Amino acid sequence: MKKIIWMQAVLLMGLAALWGCGGDDTTDEQPAVMPQVTFPVTESAVSAYVDDAVRFEAVIESPGPLSCSWFVDGKLMAATASMTYVFRAKGTYDVHFEASNTVGKVEKDYSVTVEGSPLGIEFSNEEETVSCLPGEEVLISATVVAGDKEVVHEWKVDDEVVSTTTEFKYTFGKMGSYTVTYRGVNADEVSVNRTWTVTVDELPLEIEFSVTDAVISCVQGSEVAITATVKNGGTGLVHEWKVGSDVVSTTAEFKQKFDEVGTFTVSYKGVNGKGEEKTSSWTVGVEEKPLEIEFSKADGSTLRSAAGDEVVITATVKGGGTGLVHEWKVGGDAVSATAEFRHAFDAAGTYTVTYKGVNAKGEEKTASWTVEVSEAGAGYMFENFETLSSLASDYIKEGNKGSLSIVNNPYPTTANPSGKVLKVDMSATTTGTSAFFDVYLDKKLSGAERVKYKAIRIRIYLGKNEYYPRMLIPKTPEGGSGQPNKMPCKINGQAFANNNASAAEWKKLVKTDDWNEFVYDLEGCGYGFSNCSEFNQVQFRPLVNMSAGGMSGFDAETNNRTVYYDDIEFLE
């Protein structure tokens, strides 16, 4: 099929002018003959584009006047030997020509197929393959250079449409091979299609470590930390850290505390999604800590005991214990070569207990205590909490569930070097409470044994809490009214007028940074009982204000709702 867009007919126009059609002004009279016409385009099927001007030509070769006509789909469009026609829509058109005179007629038919305007697009990237790194943006622009009639653009990554503009802008986050396709269609439904292959890859695996030295030295108990920082090739990276053959971390960070002395191998292996591997290793040399020992009773403190009672001091090694030899002495006599001192003093008096420990490196630790031993029977230590691992619920009962517990002494001082104490903790609530707990006496000391005792002494740690702890005896004394609920009448060895004193007087006697010693004397405090056999139960109320009301609210310094008790003791 021949295209006849913009047919040139300069020569044909000259021939047509020689003989002419229609209004030709030739003066020489010529005899009429059968019309003779030739056509530069002889094919009957031709093609053209929408909106392009098409020139149709007929060459008149016979003399004399002729009548010429051009028809498009049966409609007269020109009465000359030539016609320029613009087809405005796609389709197939019938173009018919007639040239006639008195002798006869010549005809010519064309079947014209009109196609859409050709669409021309240039792309900023004419390569068929594009390479990039993960996370990089790929940009391709489409510029329409022909057939720009309401062009609709469509860009796809695989089957997903990602743009409908002249610009493709897309970030490829993962490694792989992707197909980018473009399709542009104009108003005449003429399209342009183009495909690119995008290969997303990354640089080889590269890792930097925060520790570059091959040998790491540390002291026993220290933590070693190494961080792996990925510089390239980290997609799909799996980390593995080992100490010896044991996997200890699968993150980018290695953190390990070395408690044992020795030489250890730390190794790292990282493998990314492409199977690339990075390895590294370090030798960790762990030296023993310097000799460090903690004692259950504070070094230099004074311990009090009754004749016949056992005194216990425990040495706990925190570091440097290799080859450690213990030596405990009372006066100049060695009494133990273990980590624990246990000794019963049979006679009243003041004694010196010393400790010396020497390890394999020759490091030495020494400590000493003064033990004051009173005559047996001067007092009775009802409970010092040292041998209890949990609450003795049969004779000590909490009034608020979960408020009592046996804990290690958080404030060991010379005034109270005890290892274990009773913790009263009401910090879980801010409602008003006295945080009371009951102590039942018959469980450990019979009434007959309590006849000689007329006071109860306790140790209590208040800190800066503004509490005024009381002891209540839940029994009405003979001739009395109600259950006596009293503050102590002796604080840290000083008399306290518990029934008439002010808060200011209380604060002068109470220690805020050490243990306090409170004495609740039956006569001195005004309980109304003559001795401790007249009742079987006492109730301690630590969280009360000056007027004996329960404390509410919370303040981290003056009302943290936590106190500690120790050494409940009967005195004669």
From TrEMBL:
Its membrane topology:
Multi-pass membrane protein
UniProt KW tRNA processing keyword: no
Signal peptide region: 1-22
GO process annotations (BP): calcium ion transport
Q: Which GO terms describe its molecular function?
A: monoatomic cation channel activity
Question: Which residue spans adopt a coiled-coil conformation according to this UniProt entry?
Answer: none
Extract the InterPro entries matched here: Ig-like_fold (IPR013783), PKD/Chitinase_dom (IPR022409), PKD_dom (IPR000601), PKD_dom_sf (IPR035986)
Q: What CDD domains does the entry give?
A: PKD
Q: Which residues form the PKD domain?
A: 313-380
Q: Per UniProt, which keywords does this protein have?
A: Membrane, Repeat, Signal, Transmembrane, Transmembrane helix
**What cellular-component terms does GO give this entry?**
plasma membrane
Q: Which SUPFAM superfamilies match?
A: PKD domain
Which Gene3D superfamilies does this UniProt record tie to the protein?
Immunoglobulins
Chief location of this protein within or outside the cell:
membrane
Location relative to the cell: Membrane
Q: Which PANTHER family match?
A: POLYCYSTIC KIDNEY DISEASE PROTEIN 1-LIKE 1, POLYCYSTIN-1
Return the protein name: PKD-like domain-containing protein
Which organism is this protein's natural source? Alistipes timonensis JC136
The organism's taxonomic lineage, starting at the top:
Bacteria, Pseudomonadati, Bacteroidota, Bacteroidia, Bacteroidales
